User: Fold SDR family NAD(P)-dependent oxidoreductase from Thalassolituus marinus.
Amino acid sequence: MQRVLVAGSGGGIGEALVHGLRQAGYSVFTLSRTGTPSSEHCVADLSSAAAVNSIRTFLASVQPDVVFCCAGVLHDGQHGPEKNVGSISDDWLLHSMRVNVLPHVHLAQALAPLLNRSASVKWISLSAMVGSISDNRLGGWYSYRMSKAALNMFIRNLAIEWERKAPASVVVAQHPGTTDSALSQPFQAGIADGRLYTVAQTASRLIAVMQALSPQQHGKLLHWDGSVIPF
Ligand SMILES: NC(=O)c1ccc[n+]([C@@H]2O[C@H](COP(=O)([O-])OP(=O)(O)OC[C@H]3O[C@@H](n4cnc5c(N)ncnc54)[C@H](OP(=O)(O)O)[C@@H]3O)[C@@H](O)[C@H]2O)c1
Assistant:
């Protein structure tokens, strides 16, 4: 049975992924800032480098075939997407980097020493289409766009590095589609009919794309249907 790690399992999409994967018969392991630690659940703050060693110990026992990293942030009580350059605050931009980039970096740092040339891992980092520089025609959302663009570059680099380290592995960033979760909740008013998906719909699409991941998709930013979004 394939072993799947869902990191960020406390979020809307993460939780639905866990449910969908279990229903599909996968052996599922989880990582979140919340919950009770067990052999199947690691409690750690992925945005902190101090967590890397304990996450590595957990991963060494899990030996995942598939990793989904769901961590990300778009808004909190005080901050949200900026409409103009004057609204960018250093603190929020740095926090966006901390939550949209560092968890993916730290999780990869935890897994990297466990990989060898015979490893065959599918790695899916949830990113966002708005992190595509070539797709940006509307502007705005500075901190989210910049931090997701940085995540996309990280994934591109990681794919190149792991091509040598574990050649059978596939590393991608993926846009999950606009999904009804806490992250999108304040911004759902302007979404066209039929373009806001339930977490269950999104999870089942992410699982389908994961199952069909091919070496041609390695190092790419994928849409929720598996097609390639140019960086
Ligand atoms: N919903 C959408 O429409 C949409 C669209 C495009 C892209 N995405 C991306 O999809 C991913 C999942 O989003 P979601 O809709 O499920 O959002 P969500 O419900 O708000 O979940 C947020 C996720 O980020 C983690 N997280 C939040 N703050 C963190 C912090 N300070 N330190 C470490 N981890 C933190 C949470 O992990 P814990 O388990 O530790 O709580 C959780 O996995 C995100 O990367 C998001 O950018 C979502």
Helices lie at 12-23, 52-62, 90-100, 102-111, 142-165, 199-211.
